[in-house]
Amino acid sequence: MLRELRESLVDSIVSVGAIGRFLVRVVVQVPRAALRLDLVIAQIYNAGARSLVIIMLSGLFVGMVVGLQGFQLLQRFGSEDALGAAAAIGLVKELGPVITALLFAGRAGTALASELGLMRATDQLSAMEIMAVDPVRRVVVPRFLGGVIAMPLLAAIFSVIGIYGAQVIGVQIMGVDAGSFWSQMRASVGLGDVTEGIVKSCAFGVACSLVAVYEGYNAVPTAEGVGRATTRTVVTSAVFTLFLDYLITASFL
Amino acid sequence: MQIPRSRITAVMGPSGTGKTTLLRLITGQLQADSGSLHVDGVVLRTRAQPGLSRAELYALRKRMGMLFQNGALLTDISVFENVAFPLREHTRLPERLIRQLVLTKLQAVGLRGAAQLMPSELSGGMSRRVALARAIVMDPEILLYDEPFVGLDPISMGVILRLIRRLNDALGLTSIVVSHDVQEISTVADKVFLLSGGAVVAEGSPQELHGNPSEVVKQFMGGLADGPVPFHYPAPDYFGELLDRSGAD
After folding, report:
1. From the candidates B89, B142, B147, which should be mutated to test the interface with A, based on the most A CB atoms within 10 A?
2. How far apart are CA A97 and CA A89, in angstroms?
3. Centroid of chain to Cα B184
4. Cα separation of the two ends of chain A
5. Residue ranges per domain, chain B?
6. Is residue A110 within 8 Å of residue A230, measured between CB atoms?
7. Which end of chain B is more exposed for a tag (fewer CB within 10 A), N or C?
8. B118 vs B114: CA distance, rounded Å
9. Which is nearest to B179 in space by CA: B190, B165, B192, B163?
10. Closest-approach residue (CA) in chain B for A130
């Protein structure tokens, strides 16, 4: 039992080290790869635009739940007017970036990992190497950059739609005064809150995109290997996201 | 092993004997544990001795083309773009010239009419012909073929065979074909290396190999099921294992 635990811990540390080394390899290639704007834009579309529907729907429902729960809680203290502030702070600082990152890992991250894994399994990456084209520069970095750029945009859209969902429940259904809802929000949400949300979504963007391209690029070139890489992408991204969330939250206190 | 320039050299041998590994050593995708490897006078890096830097290796690879077993076409772009891929990555040629070069190479493999198809719309033989067009689009000096006949119908196989010979002669290439299709490869190869157990067991022209008295060579060239390369994977005694009840539930 103890041995298994130790081996698992060592494996995790080795994996984190390997991902770190891969990050250096990717970052070194970013300046050259960024010159191929067409490739990066195509990946922003793949990772970002194609995730929009699920992000907007989830944002709406999460906002509605926040509206309901927040209203129930604040009503106990007679502070329903603070619903706008509570919903906005919760969504902008916490729920928006975190849930977007988890959804991103499940939608775009798995797509990236399986695409790269299949490219590995069908020798497409080897073929590029033989053609003297570095697959990290040509394939990995544009996908990484696409994810890094798309994530903060998706998180912002999630938060905006979420606030709208909270407003629908709070103001239009539960009867909270619309003026109080919006004015409390404007008075309470500061630049620091928005900055925290932006920093988180950028960090999660780097983490989730990196994990996805790392797992896909290093996938064992078999059907099982690609499946495992896809699963690991979701699990590792979720763990990284929640761990980083704690670190960033603590650093902003 | 010495592979002659401007000739078609076949590397044959049973599965798992290191034929594809040899190709990956020549292209620098793998590093040899020992020995030395020279490609056109250039020393490749091994684990024992330093060799080319990454940039130098990529420069060497620009002089090579490789046809993978499954074609390895990029599945998200069309046939035309697949063939144009190396040109777009390595040159700044005007679009008109790229188009002409791509169409010329596609014409050489008989697939100019399929230029706008996606790889998913091609048969196995067509995929390999497109991959061949892509492999020669940069006018390489060395062309490597990894099992080019696997899974092909007789017509496609004949087409690929003729292309290997025609391209080699027309472009003055040095071709290295890894295959275990003895009859087919014997018709085009100038020289054959037969590998077994990770070592060269015979070399010469296809005719010389057919007349070779070695048991291993006779087994491989004749397609015999049993011989020095055993039919059975190493296992404990058959009857002993059948009668052994210790493994039964």
Report:
1. B89
2. 12
3. 14
4. 38
5. 8-205
6. yes
7. C
8. 9
9. B192
10. B61
- Burial of A81 from C-beta contacts in 10 A (0-12 / 13-18 / 19+): middle
- Residue A132 · residue B91 · CB < 8 Å: no
Burial B136-159 (b: 16+ CB within 10 A, else e): bbbebbbbbbbbbbeebeeebbeb
Identity (one letter) of the amino acid at B156?
A: S
Residue B247: pLDDT band with limits 50, 70, 90: low
Amino acid at the residue B20: T
For residue B207, what are the contacts with CB-CB under 8 A and spacing of at least 6?
Answer: none
Give the position of tokens 């290093």. Answer: A218
Residue A103: predicted pLDDT? 96
Q: Is the pTM of this model over 0.95?
A: no
SS3 B91: coil
Of A122, A130, A133, the CB nearest to B64: A130
The two structure tokens encoding residue A104: 């991103």
Element (DSSP H or E) covering residue B65: strand B64-67
**pLDDT tens figures, A172-187:** 999 999 999 999 999 9
CATH superfamily assigned to domain B8-205: P-loop containing nucleotide triphosphate hydrolases (3.40.50.300)
Q: Mean pLDDT throughout A35-64? A: 93
Which positions 121-160 of A are in contact with B (Cβ < 8 Å)? 122-124, 126-127, 129-134, 138
The model's pLDDT over B201-243, given as tens digits with 9 standing for 90+, comes to 888 888 888 887 887 777 877 777 777 777 777 888 888 888 8
